[in-house]
Amino acid sequence: MSPSGKNRAAGGERSRLFVYNGGFLTQRRLRRVLSLAGYDIRLGLPGDGDLVGIWGNSPTAHRGLAVAARRSAPLLRVEDAFLRSLFPGRAGEPPLGLLLDRAGVHFDPATPSDLEQMLATHPLDDTALLNRARDAMARIRESHLSKYSATDPDLTPPEPGYVLVVDQTRGDASVTASRGTDALFREMLVFAQEEHPGARVLIKTHPETAAGFRTGHYGDTDVSTRVSLYDAPISPWTLLDGAVGVYTLSSQLGFEAILAGHKPRVFGQPFYAGWGLSLDEHPVPRRERRLTRAQLFAAAMILYPTWYDPFRDRLCELETVLDTLEAQTRAWRQDRSGWTAGGMRLWKRKPLKQMFGQYGKVSFTDSPAPSDPRPHMVWAARDSGANEFTRVEDGFLRSRGLGAELVPPLSLVTDESGIYYDPTRPSDLETLIARRATLRNDQRQRAEKLVRTLTTARISKYNLGGTLPDMPPGHRILVPGQVEDDASILTGTGEIRSNLDLLRSVRAAHPQAVIVYKPHPDVEAGLRVGDIDPGTLADVIATQADPMQLLDQVNEVWTLTSLLGFEALLRGLPVTTLGAPFYAGWGLTRDLGPVPARRQARPDLAGLVHATLIDYPRYWDPQSGRPCPVEIAALRLETGRIPHPGPANRLLAKFQGMLATHAHLWR
């Protein structure tokens, strides 16, 4: 385990940390991370064994420095970690990690920091560590994450072939520590033009400058026929892809340039300079070691920071922070312009606002004004066949209780191409499944860990529980019943599309088997159509039974399009499909139904799981009210307190079931 998961205080004991900056007292997240790391924040004067905490080289740091000098107390310098949040700290968002340094501060070369000493002396040769570093580097780049991740990877980038000059905010501590002046920034701009004659030069404005928080070093007077300012919220990884050279004083973008394969020209002395990965205008003589990109990343992003998981309220590893930040950035990128939403029943509107309204307004209308710039979403069952909107449906880890009983969901899927249950046309899920035919090691580990969590905790879509019926001995086949007017039946089946016909097919194929029929819970609750009398076609009718316990007791599953077939795959059971559910046609099931020929990719189970449960849905945490990764939704379904609608919803659900003969509602 990296130091981010350990108590940083000496000897594993808690240390008293005396502070003289109000931020240590008023910022709840800062106090919490320090407490979890083993530091008790105090006011007053330090004694023997106590520390003084200061924020980097901030304007208030002199207070703590003076007290520490007078009392001969060691310092703890605190800074934001290199993956901080969606927005800059001045926007009020708390950080996802801190840098806690007892030797110095990472951006100030005057004194070797803990990070510099680690880069200089740590072996950084552990295979597992370096593999984690490579996977995390690829993941950060693929997800377009950065210190401030509220960027748009879909923005059209400038034509490639430009030189990138990185601006920084005036008066920033890292600029001061690297002796940054207006003259040095002008010199950097001159170098960029002289060393790349004829190339365009883009000056990348700092996010805090673009947001109006602080001014930078460049302005309109620096613009020329070759030089332009660039302040669009584009992903730094997209911007780095098109650059032929990168020039920086001490910006973190220089570090990211190294990770992207550049060798930036560095005019200051940031932590990433001096290790053979940059062209240093002002070298730090004591930095003589030569590192690889993976070694630099491992130290700076895995070993050095103290990372925090806000959902579990504990310290964590980098990978958990990536889970969190990916969920947040996806929500911001999809929702920042707001939404209009149509085909949404009244009771659905609150959950939709919770899921999609964190960063922009959601307005409900079936006919948005042509001038409204917001994207439009519709409930998938109300799809008119047009492609200019996003379809919304339940996710696969939904709730504790039925959607037809108006229990709000913890997950929803969005699809711009089609929808997962309709095989008559491609969907975003199909694209994702095909893409996950190849997985990195970290992706495989995450998917396999998720499968273990779901199967061990017996987590399913609705998590209804129930009792297990007596099961006769023999080869047992589970046949899940479905809502017969469900959209997945109407669009995803051929000649066999009823529960009785499904049972007849199974009995004909396996006349001696023990057939266990599980009615659909919506049908059992009297909310949807599909109630049948199986007669002698089934040996066991598992009414009110826990489907996850049933899966533990059977040898295989036959289904039309039920999600229970996917849940059976997670548990290693053979699955035969007579329809075309999203999980059919990829080589993981025996398919007797009309599966689309376009499903040619051959992912393994981990690839299918990653696409279906990690990439495709969005998740919402009912405890924090924030977007969250799938692991948190699973945790809440297993152990958390989840709001449940009151008795009035039961009556409303009954009435809704009477009206929903053909409409597909919350499944």
Describe the structure concisely.
By secondary structure, the protein is of the alpha/beta class.
Could you please describe the fold and organization of this structure?
- This protein has 667 residues and is α/β, with parallel strands linked by helices.
- Among the domains are: 3-111, Rossmann fold; 149-285, Rossmann fold (3-Layer(aba) Sandwich).
- A hairpin with a 4-residue loop joins β25 (617-621) and β26 (626-628).
- The longest helix is centred in the middle third of the chain and has 18 residues, at 318-335.
- 48% of the residues are buried.
- InterPro entries: Capsule_polysaccharide_synth.
Task: Estimate the strand proportion.
Answer: 15-25%
State the end-to-end distance. Answer: 41 Å
Helix amount: 25-40%
- Widest sheet, order of strands: 2-1-3-4-5-12-13
> What is the CATH C-level name of the domain at 149-285?
Alpha Beta
Label the structural class: alpha/beta
CATH structural architecture of the domain at 149-285 = 3-Layer(aba) Sandwich
By DSSP, the count of extended strands is 26
Total count of helical runs of at least 4 residues? 23
InterPro entries: Capsule_polysaccharide_synth
Protein name: Capsular polysaccharide biosynthesis protein
GO biological process, one term: polysaccharide transport
Pfam family, one: Capsule_synth
Notable traits:
single chain; 667 residues; alpha/beta; Rossmann fold; seven-stranded mixed beta sheet; 23 helices; disordered C terminus
Q: What's the helix and strand layout?
A:
Elements: E1 15-19, H1 23-26, H2 28-36, E2 39-42, E3 51-55, H3 61-71, E4 75-80, E5 97-101, H4 114-121, H5 127-143, E6 162-166, H6 173-177, H7 182-195, E7 201-204, H8 207-210, E8 227-230, H9 236-241, E9 243-248, H10 252-259, E10 265-266, E11 279-280, H11 293-303, E12 306-309, E13 314-316, H12 318-335, E14 339-342, H13 349-356, E15 362-364, E16 376-379, E17 390-394, E18 411-415, H14 428-435, H15 441-457, E19 476-480, H16 487-492, H17 499-509, E20 514-518, H18 521-524, E21 540-541, H19 547-553, E22 556-559, H20 563-570, E23 575-577, E24 590-591, H21 605-615, E25 617-621, E26 626-628, H22 630-639, H23 647-659
Helix pairs in contact: 5-11, 5-12, 14-21, 15-21, 15-22
